[in-house]
């Protein structure tokens, strides 16, 4: 008994010393603002406490941490050396699991791609046909870079490109964001891979490797939030099982988001660590540098990246607006945004879209509002009233700045995007072909019930909703306490049950809600939302703090809440993991073992004919998707491209699509010759399209845009004195044969030579 009583005495004494040791810094913190208040401007007094906290994290906390750990270890009878080994082992195995998960996912994608397309047994032409639409354009420029005599010459030809679209010289690097292709070509040539691996394997290998980094970053984010790498394993499992809704890698390997989103995931992982409380200086600097590098890289990889960063900036603005994070940290992230926008503007050939982006307007408004605000976080009634006015002030300045920038900065980029949003929200109606065609795209419509059903079958959606509700209620409680003047705790312990006081958790809650609102409007944005649904749900079920927060509300007395929270944080993810393994692992293995066949003989025959029979200087006209494949497989010039960020190309696409409308042969001839086209390709799949939605077929949209449809009493009637051009031209009668001569056809395609000399014959 005596031996047992001694440690107890030591614990009491140690506890007293700890309490006394903590009191002195607290008195110092209270004294610092009062002593320095006369020197600081009044507008910075409200943030003084948070600044002092940040300084303390880098000085006092680093010095006191070893002593507190030694005291804690002595309580448990463990030596500091033992605890150091335990921490190192946890970190080592966690990192090993994260890297292994990413590598296995990359190998899985490579194996699945091989089984789906039989890639290794195909000829080069057949491999290139698997790249469809805009993916074909991106890969074609990668090929051109490798064929150039030097990298500098290749870059010059891309920035002054007049061999892709007829009668148009474009800066392909700026307009199509070809920085991924520039990097891939440099790596391929600098690494001496020409004799080791084919260019196409090197290219898709980089993309699959980035997807592995994507998964690893999600793993680390969930691990940092929950404290256990079991959450990372569950995140990866849910991500792979819901691959249809988490990534577009199956359908479009070279798409810009497949290159960019892995960097954004790394930025989110670093930002999660950066926002944590009581972070030592070394870890904070590392996270800050990683956030800076990944933010800039992400902005360079995708032309729409600044919109996603705008959503993130709104999340941080709300986080700081409710005083749930250190203001200095949040404003450091704002500075990263400004630096990335400035550097991106310069290196993207003075891209005006970045100057008129909502991200720049919001960050500028936040920085300006910081200079104008006074006494914001002192806990008085006036400060709380000013806080509400502060949020209103930021929103007003943001809208005003964006309006002024768009007035004075010449820009044409993404004007069609604003028109699309107006029509999508019902603020305007239009008969414009391009707008209606975009509205009919599946990715720009609301998600279907199948999407929610898939997430529910994998148990992801139910657990996400549970975690989101608990975190949301906890955050609401914290906001209410802040409004009442109660300060945040320096360190949130497990027994406190206050998961809503952790700034990184609040950020992810707000971020997923905003991304979820986007996903509910546009199905294409589900690829931005669903990965973080996997991460947040996995964090929640593996976090003892979340279960403890729930038990605090329920006021459990029969069972010790801390013990039960620890048990559930291990048992629930284990049960979920076993159920997912039992149900979905056989399906995944079946996918990898099953040989699928992707073969399009008609397209192969068409490309072969073009390479053998068409003149080198020929210009082809047809649907933009087919033109992308022709450019990749043959290198011939085309009249349009499947790109939707340029008004001139959008107008070209609409005009070329008139070959499927009810227009005269003379009208079509004038349109095609205005773009110097020599050959016309009619696709039978578009001409005889039978779509699930009648009003969304290309020919239906053209009839509406051309006024060939009359609506009376809810019924629509087609009216035109000409037949549908794509049907009539196949009949080989005048006047069609006067303007066009059929030179090749198969089951899917009809190729017509556009006559330079018109012969009028009966």
TrEMBL record:
The chain crosses the membrane at residues 88-108, 307-325, 345-368, 389-409, 461-484, 528-550, 562-581. GO terms for cellular component: nuclear inner membrane. One of its GO terms (molecular function) is mannosyltransferase activity. It is a multi-pass membrane protein. It comes from the Eukaryota. InterPro entries: Dpy-19/Dpy-19-like, Dpy19L4. Residues 1-14, 60-75 have a biased composition (Basic and acidic residues). Coiled coil: none annotated. It is found in: Membrane. Residues 1-75 are annotated as: Disordered. Pfam families: Dpy19. Keywords: Glycosyltransferase, Membrane, Transferase, Transmembrane, Transmembrane helix. Belongs to the dpy-19 family. This is Dpy-19 like 4. The lineage of its organism: Eukaryota, Metazoa, Chordata, Craniata, Vertebrata.
